[in-house]
């Protein structure tokens, strides 16, 4: 390997040769799979909006609020299934969970084109919500099981960026389908959208069946040799709590991680409602912008979202600390929302505010990585908290727009702007509290993985401190303790 290539490899994957060999393989298998699934998730959800305005409404006889019911039924089931979904990953091999969910989700999308009534699509959306629930939170759980604290942020960022690209590109892809496939085979364009999106998902699901490495303790990744399989387990250390028992729910409910990380994620979600609910297009319409501009300019929010997601993730990985960039994101919420509350005298002020707030989407990658950092010591706590972060967010974001961003307020969403300022500002003190608790518990040895006992590694044993300050308990076998095999 040339000197320049070696320096690049060290910069990308670190100085340790074993780490580099492992990370290269994970970055061309595990990471692309989850990134592509999340990209297709964005395209799939956009397909329902495109199909609705492209003939599905009339063909299926949507009436009144049935379009809203379609999305609400999806979101409710999606939110409810996230904690059970991530918990399932601790007892069933992830390959089976993800591929089953992907294939089922693809089939449900496909048969949507055969529906003849609005209520049937509403029902299918509800079922699809259950099988889609694992996509985002499950990916973060698996990524956190393979990557170190200094590696996780950028991988989570790449994953999240593909979701932004999928959302941005979904409309463009489907516009092309509408133009090229309308009337082909005697099918209307809106049906072709569901057929093509479904077909796109199948090869990615098959890719997952071949390349999902499950969890490190499964030792199931065929593309890793035995040495790298063992290295994948030992390099992260071992969680202190690994099995489901009667203490799980008490541990979870009494932990600060379960409440505080999901709480600030919920505040973020409420703050960025100002970027959703057609707020920007409706404001633009009032200022005389064309319909094309109303559709195109808001997609530009994805630009700062992608740039900030990558930049903040890289910085937090290099620092091996998330609170510094989290504070920066919090101030972004405050500044962007404050500009909107001030009612800028020029359009430029509004554009600056909307695009600046777009950079706040970076906290998806940063805060899920932070959550994995501070829950690594407890396998079940990490699984349940991963699901709860998105569920709590959705429990509020489902009804929040009805109060603070009703379409009847357009184009002046002043109370919504104030709500975004308040929720954005509230993230700052809670980020400080989380940073303090993390520092305190790391100093106490209460969080973080425990190291494997190298003298017993041939038998797969590890040292396990059940509680800080107490003597070391009996060793447990990692082959069966971390996950149910």
TrEMBL record:
Location in or out of the cell: Membrane
Pfam families for this protein: MFS_1
Record GO cellular component, one term: plasma membrane
Keywords associated with the record: Membrane, Transmembrane, Transmembrane helix, Transport
Residues spanning the membrane: 30-48, 68-89, 118-144, 156-177, 189-212, 258-276, 296-315, 327-344, 350-371, 383-405, 417-437
Biological processes annotated in GO: pantothenate import across plasma membrane
Domain of life of the source: Eukaryota
InterPro entries membership: MFS, MFS_trans_sf
An example Gene Ontology molecular-function term: pantothenate transmembrane transporter activity
Membrane topology: Multi-pass membrane protein
Name of the protein in question: Major facilitator superfamily (MFS) profile domain-containing protein
Phylogenetic placement of the source organism: Eukaryota, Fungi, Dikarya, Ascomycota, Pezizomycotina
């Amino acid at each position: 390997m040339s000197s320049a290539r070696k320096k690049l490899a060290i910069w990308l994957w670190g100085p340790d040769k074993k780490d580099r060999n492992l990370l290269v393989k994970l970055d061309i298998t595990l990471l692309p799979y989850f990134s592509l699934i999340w990209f297709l998730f964005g395209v799939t959800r956009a397909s329902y909006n495109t199909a609705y305005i492209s003939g599905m409404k009339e063909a299926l006889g949507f009436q009144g609020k049935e379009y809203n019911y379609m999305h609400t039924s999806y979101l409710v089931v999606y939110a409810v299934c996230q904690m059970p979904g991530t918990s399932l990953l601790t007892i069933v091999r992830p390959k089976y969970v993800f591929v089953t969910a992907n294939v089922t989700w693809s089939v449900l999308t496909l048969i949507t084109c055969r529906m003849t009534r609005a209520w049937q699509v509403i029902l299918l959306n509800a079922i699809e919500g259950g099988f889609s629930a694992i996509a985002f939170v499950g990916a973060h759980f698996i990524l956190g099981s393979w990557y170190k604290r200094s590696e996780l942020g950028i991988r989570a960022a790449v994953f999240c960026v593909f979701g932004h690209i999928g959302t941005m590109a979904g409309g463009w892809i489907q516009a092309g389908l509408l133009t090229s496939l309308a009337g082909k085979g005697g099918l209307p364009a809106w049906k072709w959208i569901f057929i093509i999106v479904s077909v796109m998902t199948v090869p990615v699901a098959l890719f997952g069946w071949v390349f999902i490495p499950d969890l490190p303790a499964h030792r199931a990744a065929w593309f890793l040799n035995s040495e790298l399989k063992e290295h994948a387990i030992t390099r992260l250390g071992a969680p202190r709590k690994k099995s489901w028992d009667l203490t799980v729910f008490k541990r979870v409910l009494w932990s600060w991680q379960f409440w505080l990380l999901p709480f600030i994620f919920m505040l973020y979600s409420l703050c960025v409602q100002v970027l959703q609910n057609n707020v920007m297009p409706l404001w633009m319409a009032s200022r005389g912008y064309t319909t094309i501009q109303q559709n195109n300019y808001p997609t530009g929010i994805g630009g700062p979202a992608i740039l900030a997601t990558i930049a903040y993730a890289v910085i937090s990985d290099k620092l091996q600390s998330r609170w510094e960039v989290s504070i920066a994101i919090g101030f972004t919420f405050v500044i962007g929302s404050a500009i909107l509350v001030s009612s800028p005298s020029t359009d430029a002020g509004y554009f600056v505010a909307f695009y600046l707030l777009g950079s706040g989407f970076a906290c998806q990658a940063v805060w899920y990585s932070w959550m994995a950092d501070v829950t690594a010591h407890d396998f079940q706590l990490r699984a349940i908290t991963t699901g709860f972060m998105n569920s709590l967010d959705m429990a509020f974001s489902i009804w929040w727009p009805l109060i603070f961003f009703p379409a009847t307020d357009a184009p002046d969403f002043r109370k919504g702007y104030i709500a975004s300022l308040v929720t954005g500002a509230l993230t700052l003190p809670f980020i400080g509290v989380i940073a303090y608790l993390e520092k305190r518990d790391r100093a106490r040895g209460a969080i973080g993985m425990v190291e494997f006992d190298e003298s017993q590694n041939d038998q797969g044993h590890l040292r396990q401190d059940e509680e800080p300050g107490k003597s070391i308990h009996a060793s447990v076998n990692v082959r069966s303790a971390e996950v149910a095999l």
